[in-house]
Specification:
By secondary structure, the chain is α+β, with helices and mostly antiparallel strands. α10 runs antiparallel to α11. Residues about 120-140 and about 795-810 have low confidence and may be disordered. β14 (about 595-600), α22 (about 605-610) and β15 form a beta-alpha-beta unit. The protein is about 50% helix and about 15% strand.
Length: about 800
């Protein structure tokens, strides 16, 4: 029990951070909660001092122990709340707050604190005759610029140094120049974020970005990462894409199909740097120092330096920082000659990190890292012993480790995706032995490439074998039927799963239960599972039964992305495929769609084409806009290989879909790839007239409005998920009765924006959002249109309602 004394302070600190950072969003000042926690801490500390008296054996009495633990927990909570309060006050005092209120631009300098993430590539445009066929080809030799999502620390505003606060944003730049520690100078507009977001403000660049090189102590890692990634591309296949992920957590080369397969088979954690990677580095450095005959203190310093260099190399994601701090705690304990248990080190690391950054309390990556580590510390050994009763010990250990991690993480995973990967444990059992080999060989190759290129590349080739095996396992498990078991979503689902897990573990672990106790626990487990089946399976059955069979338009709930189905007679079209094949598959199954006659890929962003794997082999024809090199090839090639015919279209193309007619209103010829090259489709059917705007921005909307001769319509698929980049005159001209918005719940972009919602309300367009309603269908009705959705007012069932106004025939 000595090892578990810090668990209560860690839990209290986590709860305090979770609540305090959200306090301003619900109108509560964080200072009130902070003061209350310090008062509680003081009272408990006094109580602990007054309760000091020895127990029967001379040690501390149980009352003294409880009071001391409670006071330490209260102090930890108060420290985290104080840290959150100071940070929130810095946000309010920032010059960005004044600039946001005044809607003015400011000159900012931001230091990158994390690896940027690519969002939208902007490739140099070439004429169709130069661009090659549908399978791509380099259009130009100049470096491609991309829209990159950045996270950083604000350094200066309008030339003056300011208190550092976290900011985020999107900038256009050459990706290779955006490295950890680089400084970015640009003119920006700032928008305040909710207090629960780690970034205080979202910046929108209003000028070109000047990129400054990172300091020397960080710059070395950029060259190493870039060289490693370039060398790994020469390996080829999915194994080549996974090697950087296994070694240093770089998943930039992992394509959408492989990424989806890794997630579906619960193997994506293998490409996330965590405690295992940090343990390998610190153990190797410690062993090397010991082999050189260095004394213990020096060994610890060498291990700490190696660990710090590794964190810089892989960039400080939340899971990396948690693992590194835990390793530091262990190393300091070793240096002091008082090595403690793993659970104590984990708990202390949690408290320290939450004091440094209270927003970790709401970070899913941090939560998964902590849960996985706790699962391994608490469950791996007991599960392995239990399994050893019915199987050989080596196999029991191999199975017990991934099972422990998955059981601990699954309640958190359900919050992200309300389903359980049925084949997660066997997938990990098959892939786990290969992961350490790929990690160690890949890391050795990464370090040797700059000094011994041939030897380094040989190490990468060795790492390719286990990486390719992991990819094969992922694809195989993802393709097996019944791999995804739906579960109750959100907090109730996580709580129910935690209860089910605890009951199941009690049946197989710990001291044997009596017959009556065993029957009671088993009965509670059956009841909990029955609740899950009744709510989810029964709810899905009710949803399928209640879903109208005469729908003609359906907006699929695919998260932050677009996927809209059109049906006319026996013909079906799909406009975009969303970001996730699993989400699109779920929608297709819900609506009973097993064939796509026409697939329209409006542009090549992942939130529009990432789910194409769900329709491979069932698509007859594909319409798309201008090609975008490798980005378009990744989405289009599998469709072509499975028998689809592709056509690049510009404004004026037309055709039929059953009894409906369609024509493309955009893009114009010679439009370069990107949002403003989105294919805009106008559809006229006997029951509605609709326009589907892709991600078209305001300037392109203005030009299209001038050139297309559009008039009033019944239905508009709102552009760019409801961003603020809209042309009011377009929506005023359309005057649609219904506006569909494909958008993910609590998305980082703030979509749909208040400006867009106000615009639609002003022009009389009823807004239907997938984040609030789930999948939505529209069916013809006398004098109007009938709307059905998966969710209404927060319930899981579907319902039908008349949309405002009537839909006139087109």
């Amino acid at each position: 029990m000595r090892d578990a004394r810090l668990v209560a302070p860690a839990v209290a600190a986590w709860a305090a951070g979770w609540a305090t950072v959200a306090a301003p969003d619900v109108g509560v000042g964080p200072s009130i909660a902070t003061a209350a926690l310090w008062v509680v801490a003081a009272v408990l500390l006094v109580a602990a001092l007054l309760a000091r008296r020895p127990g029967r054996r001379g040690g501390a009495s149980p009352l003294t122990t409880v009071a001391a633990t409670a006071s330490i927990a209260a102090v930890a909570a108060a420290l985290v709340a104080s840290s959150a309060g100071f940070s929130l006050a810095s946000r309010d005092a920032s010059p960005l707050a004044r600039a946001a209120d005044a809607r003015s631009t400011v000159e900012v300098v931001v230091e990158l604190t994390a690896a940027p993430r690519a969002m939208v590539s902007v490739m140099p445009w070439a004429a169709p005759s130069e661009a090659g066929n549908a399978r791509g080809g380099d259009a130009a030799t100049e470096p491609a610029r991309s829209s990159m999502r950045i996270e950083g620390r604000l350094l200066r505003v309008d030339g003056a140094s300011v208190a550092p606060i976290s900011v985020s944003g999107v900038v256009d730049a050459v990706p290779a120049t955006l490295q950890l520690g680089a400084t970015l100078a640009f003119t920006a507009r700032a928008s305040p974020e909710p207090s629960v977001e780690a970034a205080a403000f979202r910046l929108r660049a209003q000028s070109d970005v000047e990129v400054g090189a990172p300091p020397a102590w960080l710059a070395w890692s950029a060259a190493l990462r870039t060289g490693f990634a370039d060398a790994a591309t020469r390996l080829g296949g999915d194994g080549g894409a996974l090697v950087p992920g296994l070694a240093i957590g770089d998943t930039s080369a992992v394509g959408e199909p492989l990424d989806a397969a890794m997630k579906a088979s619960s193997l994506s954690h293998l490409t996330a740097v965590s405690g295992a990677n940090c343990a390998i580095i610190t153990a190797a450095a410690f062993a090397l120092a010991a082999a050189l005959g260095l004394r213990r203190g020096i060994r610890v310093i060498v291990a700490l330096l190696a660990l710090g260099a590794f964190v810089v190399l892989v960039t400080p994601e939340s899971s990396v920082v948690r693992a590194a701090v835990m390793a530091v705690v262990v190393l300091v304990a070793v240096a002091a000659g008082r090595p403690g248990g793993g659970l104590a080190a984990l708990a202390l690391a949690v408290v320290v990190l939450l004091v440094i950054d209270p927003w970790y309390a709401r970070d899913y990556g941090f939560a998964l890292s902590v849960c996985a580590t706790a699962g391994l510390l608490l469950l791996a050994a007991p599960l392995s012993r239990a399994l050893a009763r019915v199987m050989p010990v080596p196999l029991a250990v191999m199975l017990g480790v991934p099972l422990a991690a998955q059981l601990a993480c699954q309640p958190v995973l359900v919050l992200l995706d309300p389903a359980i990967a049925v084949y997660g444990v066997p997938a990990n059992l098959l892939a786990a032995p290969a992961a350490p080999v790929g990690t160690v060989a890949g890391l050795i190759g990464c370090l040797l490439l700059p000094v011994l290129p041939s030897v380094g590349f040989a190490a990468l080739q060795l790492a390719w074998l286990p990486a390719q095996w992991i990819a094969v396992v992922a694809h195989t498990m993802a393709a097996m039927p019944g791999g995804r078991m739906p579960w109750l979503p959100d907090a109730p689902g996580a709580l129910l799963l935690a209860v089910c897990t605890a009951l199941a573990l009690r049946l197989v672990l710990g001291r044997p239960l009596g017959r009556r106790a065993r029957m009671s626990v088993a009965g509670l487990l059956v009841i909990a599972v029955a609740v899950q089946l009744g709510v989810v399976v029964g709810g899905n059955l009710i949803t399928r039964v209640s879903r109208p069979g005469d729908w003609e338009v359906a907006a699929c709930d695919v998260g932050q992305g677009d996927a809209v189905l059109l049906r006319s007679g026996e013909a079906t079209a799909l406009i975009d495929a969303g970001p996730d094949p699993a989400a699109l598959t779920r929608c297709l199954e819900l609506l009973g769609v097993d064939r796509i006659d026409l697939l329209v890929l409006t542009h090549w962003d992942a939130d529009h084409v990432g789910g194409v794997a769900a329709v491979e082999g069932i698509v007859s024809a594909v319409l798309h806009g201008p090609l975008d090199g490798e980005r378009s090839s990744r989405a289009l090639d599998p469709l072509l290989d499975s028998g689809a015919e592709a056509s690049e279209v510009t404004a004026g193309a037309h055709g039929t879909l059953g009894r409906a007619r369609w024509r493309t209103l955009w893009p114009l010829p010679d439009t370069p790839p990107g949002n403003d090259a989105s294919v805009v489709l106008e559809v006229v059917s006997p029951s509605y007239h609709g326009v589907f705007l892709g991600d078209l921005g305001e300037d392109a909307q203005r030009r299209m409005l001038t050139d297309s001769g559009l008039g009033r319509v019944d239905l508009v698929k709102v552009a760019h998920h409801g961003s603020a980049d809209q042309r009011d005159a377009l929506y005023e001209r359309l005057g649609a009765r219904v506006g569909l918005v494909g958008v993910g719940a609590d998305n980082w972009y703030g979509h749909p924006t208040a400006r867009l919602l106000e615009l639609l309300d002003r022009v009389g367009t009823a807004t239907l959002r997938t984040d609030l309603s789930g999948t939505i269908t529209l069916s013809p009705a006398e004098g109007g249109v009938r709307v059905w959705s998966e969710r209404r007012a927060g319930t899981a069932g579907g319902s039908a309602a008349a949309a405002p106004g009537g839909a006139k025939p087109g």
